[in-house]
Amino acid sequence: MNEMIKKQLAHRTIREFKDERIPEEMFSLLMEAGRRTASSTGMQASSIIRVTDKELRREIALICNQEYVQRAPELLIFIVDLYRNKKIANEKQCFETSASDMDRFFSGFTDACIMAQNIVNAAESMELGSVYLGSVLNDSEKLCKLLKLPELTFPVVGLGIGYPNQNPQIKPKIDMELRVFENEYKIFDNYLKELKDYDEEMHTYYDLREANKRVDTFSDQVVTRMKNPNPKRARMLNNIEEQGFDLNVDGR
Amino acid sequence: MNEMIKKQLAHRTIREFKDERIPEEMFSLLMEAGRRTASSTGMQASSIIRVTDKELRREIALICNQEYVQRAPELLIFIVDLYRNKKIANEKQCFETSASDMDRFFSGFTDACIMAQNIVNAAESMELGSVYLGSVLNDSEKLCKLLKLPELTFPVVGLGIGYPNQNPQIKPKIDMELRVFENEYKIFDNYLKELKDYDEEMHTYYDLREANKRVDTFSDQVVTRMKNPNPKRARMLNNIEEQGFDLNVDGR
Q1: What is each CA distance from B117 to A120, B137, B159, in whole angstroms?
Q2: Which of A115, A126, B183, B191 gives a 20 to 30 Å CA spacing to A46?
Q3: From the candidates A103, A147, A227, which should be mutated to test the interface with B, based on the most B CB atoms within 10 A?
Q4: Which residues of chain B have a CB within 8 Å of the CB of A123?
């Protein structure tokens, strides 16, 4: 097994970092890996905002409701970016409205995500750690304002990167048989039965965020999540529309 | 520079593969890397369909309008999967409807994308090549039927993997200054001016798909894309709704 695979199989989220800057040369390599990521039809419809301003970091940490966000040595926000390509087309006297369709949006969203993961892998190959911050979407409207995101851009996910200052356990994951299927989706008769071992394994896992407290079984975590939806995030498409995208949904 | 970063900076899409199976042990490592990928709030709301059936591959190649799709030694379709977690909650007597909200959908979409890229990185670390197939979404409705995707699942992206049987040039990418910004989105006065060198560089790049024909400049490619939207893909949200997700958009 090669070094990269070893690192991937030992992936942990790192939330506490050493108070040490990532050297600029190393940061440039991370960005270069990001820039070289595959992109839907070569359109490169994603961008990165590197957040260095202290006050801005504090505001983003408030959106995330995660205090440690502002302490990450590097904080990146990945965005869907169709603004750039629209302007390029406009400058070439092309004023088609298709820059704002949901096909472009999802292509840009995919571009942004795979760029983020490519940077995560580049970081881990250099012994850096990272934490994904889906929580930047808790208030996408506010984040758009904070980052001055123009029309046809939208935040996708955040990423904190730095030198790890903690050594968490590897988090147990759902069995492969429940996640990889052949030729068609496989429905199981009894998920709790299939998850029995995993639920037990998860119950013995110690999450460093919870100071040596046992975590819930996976199925209990699922129930807790289902019982606690985030109404603002559930309405996210309305904000995507406010950013200029044409949802193109029937019935209105 | 370590081996992983070197590989990332030399990333190319591989569309032609040797007629040689990936050993099952190696394939298992790819799936294991996928399974170990970070996941939004630990919910693991994504799954993979491994397509091995010949007729099914032919049908998917037709959707993609890319004949080589059916020849890839491995063909994977990554999906948003909230079906599993909904069933788990149901079996625990939790019948909340939040499994179908767009917050879960986008979390699952993100999970699926970053899992795909983690597998791409694992593949490249073992000298395999890959091709992303955004084109599986050309007819998401048909793909849902072909893969028997139940409610609360949706296709995200496809991936072909195998031993490379071509050696393409590295594709030029937009300059970093246009893709990574500090603290706020940076708007440029004249994109064509900023892109001048890149446009020239792209024009000297030879795309193997076009048999040694010069490709258009990037800005011309953008115009061509804008002038040729895909109306079916632009209406994708309606199919996402048909799969059981609650779009929660104002005005209807």
Answers
A1: 10, 18, 10
A2: A126
A3: A103
A4: none
pLDDT in tens, chain A (252 residues): 999 999 999 999 999 999 999 999 999 999 999 999 999 999 999 999 999 999 999 999 999 999 999 999 999 999 999 999 999 999 999 998 899 999 999 999 999 999 999 999 999 999 999 999 999 999 999 999 999 999 999 999 999 999 999 999 999 999 999 999 999 999 999 999 999 999 999 988 877 666 667 789 999 999 999 999 999 999 999 999 999 999 999 998
Walk me through the domains of chain A, giving residue ranges and CATH numbers. 3-168 (3.40.109.10)
Residue A212: Cβ within 10 Å count: 7
Nearest to A31 among B31, B180, B234 (CB): B180
pTM for this structure?
A: 0.97
Phi, psi torsion values for B226, nearest 5 degrees: -65, -35
Q: CA of B16, closest CA in chain A: separation in Å?
A: 16
B127 inside 8 A of chain A by CB: no
Cα distance from B193 to chain A (closest Cα, Å)? 10
A179 touches chain B (CB under 8 A): yes
Tell me how far apart the alpha carbons of residues B178 and B171 are, in angstroms, rounded to a whole number.
17
Give the closest-approach CA distance of B63 to chain A in angstroms.
Answer: 15
Rounded CA separation B174/A81 (Å): 13
